[in-house]
Design goal:
- The chain has about 130 residues and is mainly α.
- The protein has one domain: Four Helix Bundle (Hemerythrin (Met), subunit A).
- The longest helix is centred in the C-terminal third of the chain and has 28 residues.
- The two termini are about 10 Å apart.
Length: about 130
């Protein structure tokens, strides 16, 4: 899957998650789809950065930690933690409505920031190919 394919999939997941977060939808499914939107963008960074590689779910945190080290004034790890809570909500249904609203807002911000970062860093250097 190309980085462009992942970007398109992330956008599709974001749209589908928004559609599922409604009174007649399933918030656990919506949460997982929103997590998927963030995960697709993290995978772009994981696959293009030579110091990262995907081995398991912890690889997403590794990518967020890597991005945090490169960032200036952003809250990458905090935002990642909210996205990861949404992933956990899919399995356990443990988040309150208030926590879901908060994590949804923060994860959407995370996705936007990842997209902006990827756009800027793609201009600066070509993606890593394995």
């Amino acid at each position: 899957m190309t980085p462009w394919d992942r970007r398109l999939l992330s956008e599709e997941f974001l749209t589908r998650s928004d559609a599922e977060f409604n009174p007649s939808g399933n918030d656990q499914i919506a949460a997982e789809i929103l997590w998927g939107a963030a995960a697709q963008l993290l995978l772009i960074e994981i696959h293009r950065e030579p110091t990262l590689n995907f081995t398991d779910h912890g690889s997403y945190r590794d990518a967020a930690t890597f991005l945090q080290a490169k960032s200036t004034g952003t809250v990458v790890l905090t935002d990642f933690d909210c996205a990861n809570k949404l992933h956990g909500h899919f399995y356990h249904g443990h988040l309150s409505e208030s926590d879901l609203r908060s994590c949804r807002r923060i994860t959407k911000r995370f996705i936007q920031r990842l997209g902006t970062y990827l756009d800027q860093s793609t201009e600066a250097s070509p993606p890593h190919t394995a």
